[in-house]
Amino acid sequence: MTTELTDILCHFALYRFKNKYWELNIGERAKFHREWMARLQKTCHNMDTYQVFPVDNGADILIWSVVVVQNNDDAIQFFAKYARSTNQFRGLIDPVVNLWGYAQPLQHSQICSIQEIAPLAKNRKKYMVVYPIVRTAEWYATSHKIRQDMMNEYLKLGAEYPQISQLLINSFNLQNHESIIAYETNDVQSLSRFMNDLHHTQTWCYVQRNTPMHTAIYHPAEETLALWR
Asked: 104-216 — its CATH code?
């Protein structure tokens, strides 16, 4: 059975290591890494681990968990398993930010699109940028056609940056924002240029907030955690 993009729950969690973690010796840290990762991997269908510090000093690592949702209880079961897998280690790690929602295809354009991130892919690009989006009330007051025209402009701009992939995640009424946007690229400078160009599009006039923005660097889990041994 083919899994539609709308059947995917995405959960981004940023963590900071506590002072007690740094009191452990190298062997104890490595043991904690193995146990925590093994437990988290059992909670979802795919999981990727990213380095945050020193790109940002608010967190050390980012963990992206992906769940294929087949019934109404799958999300509840994921959150319960995730809590059980993490809470026993809360003396060593501090959850900083949790962003989650359901992945959505880009439906605003029939004439153009930009490359979309595959949540279940086994290969990742070097950089991930994730941030929430809050739109203005005026955005929802405009007609569907006007919104589609503005999104077409955005998608055409994205087509000029084929090295950047995007994932749109719906979190409307699930968190304090309507959506989450994730970008993935091997060229972080091109992403910076794309974001600068994006600020000059008409659709950006209807963005009330797109912060906090989280930039992270991908490594396989063992390599990521080895940076903190």
From this structure: 3.30.70.1030
